[in-house]
Design a protein that fits this description.
The chain has 109 residues and is α+β, with helices and mostly antiparallel strands. It has two helices and eight strands. Strands 1, 2, 3, 4, 5 and 8 form a six-stranded antiparallel sheet that branches. Strands 6-7 form a two-stranded antiparallel ribbon. Strand 6 and strand 7 form a beta hairpin. The longest helix is centred in the last third of the chain and has 13 residues.
Length: 109
Protein backbone atom coordinates (compact mmCIF):
# COMPACT_ATOMS: atom_id res chain seq x y z
CA UNK A 1 0.00 0.00 0.00
CA UNK A 2 1.48 3.33 -1.04
CA UNK A 3 1.09 6.36 1.19
CA UNK A 4 0.98 10.02 0.31
CA UNK A 5 0.19 13.21 2.08
CA UNK A 6 -1.19 16.20 0.27
CA UNK A 7 -0.70 19.71 1.45
CA UNK A 8 -3.72 21.59 0.16
CA UNK A 9 -3.08 25.32 0.11
CA UNK A 10 -5.97 27.29 1.50
CA UNK A 11 -5.49 31.03 1.40
CA UNK A 12 -6.80 31.96 4.81
CA UNK A 13 -4.61 34.82 5.94
CA UNK A 14 -5.28 35.68 9.54
CA UNK A 15 -4.13 39.25 9.04
CA UNK A 16 -4.36 41.78 6.24
CA UNK A 17 -1.34 40.12 4.66
CA UNK A 18 -1.34 36.77 2.91
CA UNK A 19 1.11 33.89 2.96
CA UNK A 20 0.39 31.73 -0.10
CA UNK A 21 1.49 28.16 0.37
CA UNK A 22 3.56 26.12 -2.00
CA UNK A 23 2.03 22.79 -2.98
CA UNK A 24 3.92 19.82 -1.70
CA UNK A 25 3.67 16.08 -2.37
CA UNK A 26 5.59 13.66 -0.26
CA UNK A 27 6.87 10.11 -0.64
CA UNK A 28 5.93 6.93 1.20
CA UNK A 29 8.86 7.27 3.60
CA UNK A 30 7.52 10.57 4.92
CA UNK A 31 4.13 9.18 5.94
CA UNK A 32 4.35 8.38 9.66
CA UNK A 33 5.27 4.69 9.84
CA UNK A 34 2.96 3.94 12.78
CA UNK A 35 0.05 5.72 11.06
CA UNK A 36 0.66 3.76 7.86
CA UNK A 37 0.83 0.48 9.79
CA UNK A 38 -2.48 1.28 11.53
CA UNK A 39 -4.10 2.52 8.30
CA UNK A 40 -4.70 6.01 9.71
CA UNK A 41 -5.80 8.85 7.44
CA UNK A 42 -7.14 12.29 8.20
CA UNK A 43 -7.35 15.99 7.58
CA UNK A 44 -5.51 18.33 9.94
CA UNK A 45 -5.99 22.09 10.01
CA UNK A 46 -2.90 23.92 11.25
CA UNK A 47 -1.97 27.52 11.95
CA UNK A 48 1.63 28.60 11.40
CA UNK A 49 3.57 31.79 11.95
CA UNK A 50 5.43 32.43 8.69
CA UNK A 51 8.66 34.39 8.98
CA UNK A 52 10.06 36.92 6.55
CA UNK A 53 12.17 34.12 5.03
CA UNK A 54 9.05 32.09 4.13
CA UNK A 55 9.69 29.39 6.73
CA UNK A 56 7.24 28.42 9.46
CA UNK A 57 8.48 29.62 12.86
CA UNK A 58 5.74 27.92 14.86
CA UNK A 59 2.79 25.64 14.26
CA UNK A 60 -0.33 24.69 16.17
CA UNK A 61 -3.21 22.36 15.39
CA UNK A 62 -6.52 24.17 14.92
CA UNK A 63 -8.57 21.08 14.01
CA UNK A 64 -7.36 17.58 14.77
CA UNK A 65 -7.50 14.65 12.39
CA UNK A 66 -8.53 12.57 15.38
CA UNK A 67 -5.12 10.88 15.37
CA UNK A 68 -2.32 12.41 17.44
CA UNK A 69 0.29 10.73 15.22
CA UNK A 70 -0.96 12.64 12.16
CA UNK A 71 -1.45 15.89 14.07
CA UNK A 72 2.10 15.82 15.42
CA UNK A 73 3.56 14.85 12.05
CA UNK A 74 1.77 17.77 10.39
CA UNK A 75 3.51 20.41 12.48
CA UNK A 76 6.85 18.64 12.08
CA UNK A 77 6.44 18.72 8.28
CA UNK A 78 5.22 22.33 8.24
CA UNK A 79 8.17 23.56 10.31
CA UNK A 80 10.83 21.31 8.76
CA UNK A 81 9.94 21.28 5.07
CA UNK A 82 7.12 23.64 4.05
CA UNK A 83 8.06 26.88 2.33
CA UNK A 84 5.73 29.83 1.92
CA UNK A 85 5.87 33.17 0.18
CA UNK A 86 6.40 35.77 2.88
CA UNK A 87 3.57 38.21 3.51
CA UNK A 88 4.22 41.81 2.44
CA UNK A 89 3.24 45.06 4.07
CA UNK A 90 1.88 48.09 2.21
CA UNK A 91 5.44 49.09 1.25
CA UNK A 92 6.28 45.65 -0.11
CA UNK A 93 8.57 44.67 2.75
CA UNK A 94 8.43 41.07 3.98
CA UNK A 95 6.66 40.73 7.32
CA UNK A 96 5.68 37.89 9.62
CA UNK A 97 2.09 36.75 9.31
CA UNK A 98 -0.08 33.79 10.27
CA UNK A 99 -1.29 31.24 7.75
CA UNK A 100 -3.98 28.65 8.35
CA UNK A 101 -4.57 25.69 6.11
CA UNK A 102 -5.27 21.97 5.84
CA UNK A 103 -2.86 19.06 5.52
CA UNK A 104 -4.47 15.86 4.25
CA UNK A 105 -2.94 12.49 5.04
CA UNK A 106 -4.24 9.65 2.89
CA UNK A 107 -3.09 6.17 2.01
CA UNK A 108 -3.16 5.16 -1.63
CA UNK A 109 -5.09 1.95 -2.25
Amino acid sequence: MNAICRYLPLMLALSLMSAPAMAQRDRDSEYPAEARRLGLEGRVVFRALIGTDGRAKSCEIVQSSGHMILDDATCVKVIDTARFEAARDANGAAVEAYFQGPFVWELEQ
